[in-house]
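FW: tagging you since you asked about this chain on Friday. Here's the raw sequence from the shared folder, copied in full. Didn't touch anything.
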Amino acid sequence: MTRDTDQETDGRRRRGARRRTQLIDAAVRVIARDGVAGLTHRGVAAEAGVPKSAATYYFTSLDDLLTAALRADTEQLVEALPTPAGDSDVAWLAEELVRFVHQHRDRVIVGYELYVLATRRPSLRPAVHYWLDVLHTLIGRHTADPTRVRAGAAAVDGYILQSLVTGVEPRTAELAEILRVALHQPRDPALHGADRRRPSPDRAPGG
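HL: got it, structure written out here
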């Protein structure tokens, strides 16, 4: 009897965990599509294909649901970040980050929603720090200077956020060059024209 009861309890817990994950994933999709302002129990339940009562049962308040969704989003983003090889350089990091944004655009948008919300909701700040710690670790492979690490992380965040806001697709070569500037590394002359001869102002080209 006890064994049957334990198995039944374990089964309920597994089903509950699956339903909770289902609701969190639905909340992430709603936030990515409609923003935080569009998050409601009814909307998340509809997105998940479950009754509204299920959403309110597992997440009594919208704040609980929002916090769970944003934390889960951050954890999944971190898991999806590239693992650098021993000889990887800034160009490799830029390429992987651009690919990362292309593959996980909706989740990246949700991650930046988290940034803004964390300024007013301290409960969300650990998730922001988690993301920043991982980003700092990636960039720290290319410099031992903590100030340059922070500059590099700020450059990555700023570049990605601007690309999302403007709709201009991020480019590997451009991000790599921005990182080189932030980390005080030699720049690519092909990108900023240092290797090209410029005509004198008082001399016509070819003259």
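FW: The chain has two domains: 1-60, 67-193.
HL: agreed, and The two ends are 98 Å apart (CA to CA).
FW: great, closing this out.
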